[in-house]
Structure formats: C-alpha cells, structure tokens
Protein: Alpha-hydroxy-acid oxidizing protein
Amino acid sequence: MLNLREFEAAARAVLDPAHADYFAGGAGDELTLRANEEAFARLRLLPRVLRGGGKQDLAVTLLGSRAALPILISPTAFHKLAHPEGELATARAAAAAGAIMIASMAATTSVGDIAAAARTGAPDGAPLWFQLYIQPDLEFTEILVRRAEEAGCEALVVTVDSPARGAHERDRRNGFTDLPDGLCCENLRDPRTGRVLPIVMSPEITWWHVDWLRRTTSLPLVLKGVLHPEDAGIALRHGVDGLLLSNHGGRQLDGVPATVELLPEIVAAVEGRIPVILDGGVRRGTDVAKALALGAAAVGVGRPVLWGLAVDGERGVGQVLELLREELDHTLTLLGVGGLPGLTPGHVRPAPAAGAVPPGAER
Ligand SMILES: Cc1cc2nc3c(=O)[nH]c(=O)nc-3n(C[C@H](O)[C@H](O)[C@H](O)COP(=O)(O)O)c2cc1C
Ligand SMILES: CCCCC(=O)C(=O)O
Structure:
C-alpha cells in the first residue's frame, strides 16, 4: 500500500458496506466533509533551498505527553466494527509508533483494557488520552473521569461540538442504528447498576460544566470542536489547557468551514498560550506540514486509522502511521526545513482562485 487513499479503497472492500459508510460518512450534504480535504489541496507549499539539515526530529511534547511524531490518533467510536481486536490493535500500533492515541468514550473496549494494550505496544509507556462527552448525569461523568485517570490517561479531550448527534443520512439509509450483538460501548458500563448506558449528547452542557470538570480533575483539559475564535478566547478564560480544532470530520454541523481554513484565526486567538491541535482531512505528510506551518502544534487523524485497522488490524494501523511519518519527514527535507520548529506560515501560500490571472499576465 503506497498511501492512505489505497488504504481507504482496501478498507471499503473488506468492510460491511453499512459500517464502511458509517466510518466514511458526514452530516447532511457532506459539504464540510469534502471541504476538509479540499482546503488542504488549495494550500501550496513554498520550499527554501540550500539550507543544509539532516535527519528530521519529529518528536513533540504535548501537554506533558511525549510523542515520537506530531500526529495523534483522533478519537473514533466502535473500532471492533473495523477489526475483531478493535481498540486493542489500534493502541498497540499507536504505542509502537510513539503516537498519542485518544481513546473514544464510545470505544468498544474499556479504557483500562486499551491502556493495558498500549503498554504491551511500548513497555516504557505510551501516551493515552481519553475523549469525553460530558454527560448530564455528573455522577456518571465523574465515574468516567476516574476510570480514565486510573487507566493512566494523561489528558481529557472534551468534545463540545455535539449538543445533539449529527444527522448522518448514510446511516439512516443503511438502517445502521445500533452496534451488532456482542459489541457495546464498554466505557458506558454503569457500576451503580451494571448496565451499559446510552451516550447522551445534550444541549444543556455549558461552560459551567467545563468549570466543574476543571475542579473535578487535575488532568489537562483539551476542548475538541471549538470553531469560533471568540470561543477559543472564552476557553482560555476557563483554564482549558489545549484546543483540538475539529469539525468532527464533517459529522456534526454541515456547512462549517474546513478546519485548516480556521486555523490561522484560532491560533491568533489563543496567542500562543495553549497548543492548538487540528484534525479533519489530514491524508498526507504534506497536509501535516501545512497545518504545522500555520501554527498547529500537532494534527489528528480519524478515518485513516480505521482504514488501516480494517485492512490489517495492528499492522494496518502501524502502516498508516508509518506512511504519514515518512511522508512528513520527506516533506520537511524537500521544504528545506531542519525540523518541526522550522516550519513557518511563510512555507504556505493559498492557491490562486480558479480563473484568476497571475499578476503581470494581463495585457
Ligand atoms: C467513524 C467516526 C467516529 C467518530 N467518533 C468520535 C467520537 O467518538 N468522539 C469524538 O470526539 N469524535 C469522533 N469522531 C471525530 C474524530 O475524532 C475526528 O474529529 C475526525 O474523524 C477527523 O477527521 P478525519 O476523519 O478526516 O481525519 C469520529 C469520526 C469518525 C469518522
Ligand atoms: C455515540 C457515538 C458517537 C460517535 C461519533 O462521534 C461519530 O460517529 O461521529
């Protein structure tokens, strides 16, 4: 497999079509889903020449978590739909690659088991973060937080773009509403009753809940899904430690901008005080370089990990991460950049608008 696109095609060939559509799909007309990738394609890279350099160091430290590459595994639900080993395979591959994995609250494996798998992938420890939808039942939300802490998660990623579930027409068409028998969201098991609770996406969640969470845990808090620069400023005032600039891969509000289009504004709004991670449409090492040049501290990938997992379990996820790592390394070399800190906004230009006449070409 030469690139992530080939993984996508191969994954579709092996997945149940309804599950392939669940992974691939977006909300509504899928405008934002397409926009994420198109926006990367509209950015051009501008290399510098004759600058020497050598082996690229791709390591980053994010909120105290050390990673071998600036590419995280964004949280995605239901990995056992892609492969019987599910999140365990993903965690081992992430750990072996030194990539931070953000375990989804909607995982088909408990966060404790995911953490144990990550340790087998990298015995000196592999950074694991936990994604949380704040539940209106705060007692249960606190149970989830303690489980993540006990599992050794190093940060909480609080998804705030989901006051309601996105409208996924592919799932409605396919009648995909529930997990198959035998699979469930293990993290949602309620120790008070032994039952598995449904995930509540509630419009009643507010900044008050972020403050509550801030008081409830000492883990770093990353807000996932802030898109408005004013909300980035509000997040700072609420003591948030990082932002994951995300439109949920085009699966929540359709019609919102591509994340990389918003990146410069969000980076400006946080004034360097907290890291901004970006996800949505990252498919190439060149995309990673573009996002980092525009000020992202790192990027996340969602669907490509599911494709790798579907194609070949742990090995497939490992190959997806390795392809991105290699491509990023090669991109930096061709850009004449000696390491991640060398990437600057000057390395990126917008493509001319369609039909535009280049300056000096008018007659
Ligand atoms: C199948 C699928 C399931 C997802 N599940 C979650 C989830 O449980 N929690 C969450 O915060 N985001 C979830 N996301 C959004 C991802 O974290 C991420 O924002 C998005 O996939 C990034 O875009 P990309 O797929 O283009 O890389 C999901 C995305 C997909 C495609
Ligand atoms: C209840 C699971 C939510 C998964 C999710 O966030 C998505 O499919 O985008």
User: Anything to note?
Assistant: The pocket of 2-Ketohexanoic acid (ligand 2) is lined by residues 77, 106, 199, 248, 251 (CB under 6 Å). The two ends are 48 Å apart (CA to CA). The chain has one domain: 4-338.
